[in-house]
Specification:
The protein is mostly beta strands. 10% of the residues lie in helices and 66% in strands. The chain is globular, with a radius of gyration of 20 Å.
């Protein structure tokens, strides 16, 4: 019995380490402060799996905080989602990818400590992404959300759709996100 258990554990360890190179973790953080105007902070960790040379899938979490000085206005947003990325073209260590993300958000806005709005929203966005492999282990990325398309639906029934090349397309679009991945 001990031999079977030991052999099983060893086989599981070898199988796991053989596929460990297909996983990646990373994400982005952001901070912005303008004296006497506003403060914002965001964090968005991600974990993913390389299915093959062209396709990756993964999941992400996010938190954003924004406050305006002087008038006691605060926005908070919590999000979770899944994504798929497709490698469109590669030039050496640089890749252009298409990224599709399905997400759910919980957000709230308050003024002087009283909630003005809060709710849950669902959405789907598609946008280009550029990655640069610094080494086998580290990859830098940028997501160009302002070049994408998306649909955003708030639980109270309001739906918006955006497509275009500006930062006002959809609530979720409008950022240039920069971050990194660690590749196992």
């Amino acid at each position: 019995m001990k031999k079977i258990l030991l052999t099983s554990v060893l086989a599981l360890g070898v199988a796991t380490s053989a596929h460990a190179t297909d996983w990646f973790v990373g994400g982005s953080v952001g901070f912005n402060w303008v004296e006497d105007t506003y403060t914002s902070f965001s964090i968005a960790p991600e974990v993913g799996y390389n299915l093959n040379e062209k396709w990756d899938v993964g999941a992400m979490l996010g938190y954003k905080y924004w406050s305006q000085s002087g008038i006691k206005y605060v926005e908070s947003e919590y999000s979770a989602g899944v994504f798929a990325r497709y490698n469109v073209i590669q030039f050496g260590d640089v890749k252009l990818l298409g990224k599709a993300t399905a997400y759910v958000d919980y957000w709230s806005e308050s003024f002087d400590g009283k909630t003005l709005f809060d709710g849950t929203s669902f959405g789907l966005k598609v946008a280009p992404m550029i990655t640069y492999d610094i080494s086998k282990s580290f990859t830098l990325f940028t997501e160009l959300d302002f070049l994408g398309a998306g649909i955003h639906s708030v639980v109270d029934g309001k739906t918006s759709f955006g497509f275009g090349f500006d930062s006002n397309s959809v609530k979720k679009l409008g950022d240039i996100k920069v971050g990194f991945y660690y590749n196992f």
